[in-house]
Structure formats: structure tokens, C-alpha cells
Amino acid sequence: MRFKDPILRQEALNRIKDELVSLTTHDLAHPLTALRDLADLLLNCPTDDADLQSFLDLIRSESDGLAGLADDLLLLSTLEQGRPLALAPVEIDEWLREVLVPFHHPPMSHRFQLLAAPGLPLLNVDPSLLQRAITHIVGNAVKYAPRKSAIRIYVHQVGEALQIEIGDDGVGIPVDHIPNLGRPFYRVKCEETLGIPGTGLGLALVYRIVLAHQGQVTIDSRVGEGTTVTVRLFGCVPRD
Q1: Closest Cα partner for 69 from 180, 208, 197?
Q2: Count of domains in the chain?
Q3: pLDDT over 50 (residue 133)
Q4: pTM for this entry
Q5: pLDDT of 15-59, one tens digit each?
Q6: Residue 175 CA from chain centroid, whole number
Q7: Is the distance from CB of 202 to CB of 181 less than 8 angstroms?
Q8: What residues contact residue 47 under an 8 Å CB cut-off, 6+ apart?
Q9: Strand ranges for the chain from DSSP E
Q10: Counting Cβ atoms within 10 Å, is residue 186 exposed (0-12), middle (13-18) or buried (19+)?
């Protein structure tokens, strides 16, 4: 079917894309689950074969990565279709401590510094969805910053918004790349990032999750000095 109207044509293409993403991710889920379960089963069997052990570890790791990619694609698709939010008021500083728990498991590669201004209001958000965004930002900081360096998280109120600032001392981002970071699959390609794995979906999800909350994302970065990602959210709830 041909569309002379470019708007109708774009809408049709978007529907096809959404259906393709949904179909692909669902079809991937079952074989990936089976692959991971089989790898887990074999890993639990005692073996003296170091090569086999290494191969099974690789299967488990790569299947986890593919499952994560499929999950990110599906989430991105639902967000672009206007996924409704499950809003609930949260204590943002306590909530952030819980979000950071997985990053504290040994061996801990970085130091995490969480500083919350006193007397913050509650914040009305979708906790699990916003957790995906903050986890992606912190994960990027860990990925691109030197081991044992500090990852700084600062929360404070600015007018009617709460601001979460996540800063690192990593490789930084060339300024001309920053406007493109919200595009799916866009990755900064330079000497400092060679060999660092990633799909380019993380920040695309961050932007769309925050936008779904009617919030804003800004990135300030300097090559060789580090990056600060600021998430501004407007769902403040007065305390009783």
C-alpha cells in the first residue's frame, strides 16, 4: 500500500516498526530463556575442564546481554507508543539508595557518594521505570570512569522540580556528540571508548523515560574530565 500523504506514510512505518520490535523481542524471549537455563544447569555440574567452564560462562553472559537488549527494545517501543505510568510518591533519597544497592556488591569497582539536600518533598514517579533510567546513567558512569574513582549523586530542589545530578571523572564526551545521545543505537566512537561494550539504547531509554514523566535530561561533559547527567523531574508532592 502506498501513501501519498507523508504523515500517513510515517504513521504506517511507525506501526510496522512497533509490530516488528514487539514480534522480534517476544520471539527471542523463549530461546534465550532456554539457553540461559541450560547454561545454568551445566555450570552447576562439577567439571575439571577449564575451557568448558569458560565457554559456559560466555554462553551465560552473552545470553544475558541479548535478553537485556530485547527487553530494552520492547520498553523503548512501549514508551514511544505512550505507555501509561504507574505513579506513586517516593522518598527520593531512600529510593536512590535502593537503586544503588546492586552497584555495591563486591567486588565494588567504584566509590558512590550520595548527597541529598535536607527537607526534600516526596516525588510522584513510576518507581520501577525511573529506576531503569537511573540505573542506565549510573551504569554508564561506572563503564566510562576509572576504577576506584567516585560516582557522585546529588539530589536537590530547584523551584518546583527535583534535580538528580550524576557525575563521574570518566573519559568525557566530545561536545558535538551530545545532541545525538538520545537517538537509539547512537554511540560515541572515539579512541577512549574503543572496546567498551554497549548498544546505544541506554541513553535513548533514559531520555524517553524522563520525557514520559514530563521531565528533562541535560548532559554536561568535557573530554578527559568527566560527565554530569542531570535529570529534572516535576512531580513534587507536599508533605502532610
Answers
A1: 197
A2: 2
A3: yes
A4: 0.78
A5: 555 555 565 666 666 677 777 777 777 777 777 777 777 777 777
A6: 21
A7: no
A8: 53
A9: 88-90, 111-116, 122-125, 150-158, 161-167, 216-222, 226-233, 236-237
A10: middle
